[in-house]
Amino acid sequence: METIGKGLIIVEDEPLISLMIEDIAHDLGWLVVGSVHTEEDAFRLLGQCQPRVALLDINLGLTTSLAVASSCQDRGIPVIFITGYTARDVPSQCGGAPILAKPFSPCDLERSLKRILTPENSAA
């Protein structure tokens, strides 16, 4: 599959879930340019690459990914939040970013990626 321009990062504190997301993304033709488990490592990764999309778990144990999402937004990187939260529990700071509820299917992730990358959504 074609992966040019299809690099993404994953910020997920649960290693097994992170591996599952990596596998699904790869099967969908995406290149995972980095997968990290903490807010600190996410900022370090963003300093090293310019992904096309960021997949962020909201809750990272003792911290959240909301500051990472803000940094991505400042850099024009679309964000998809992947979370176990219900819709009413999602922090208001998530704004209009798509929310993909765990558990999700490969088709769910593919739909979210297509939705966030449509021209009307990707113009920042």
TrEMBL record:
Signal peptide: none annotated. Residues 7-117 form the Response regulatory domain. The modification 4-aspartylphosphate is found at residue 57. Keywords: Phosphoprotein. It comes from the Bacteria. Pfam families: Response_reg. This is Response regulator.
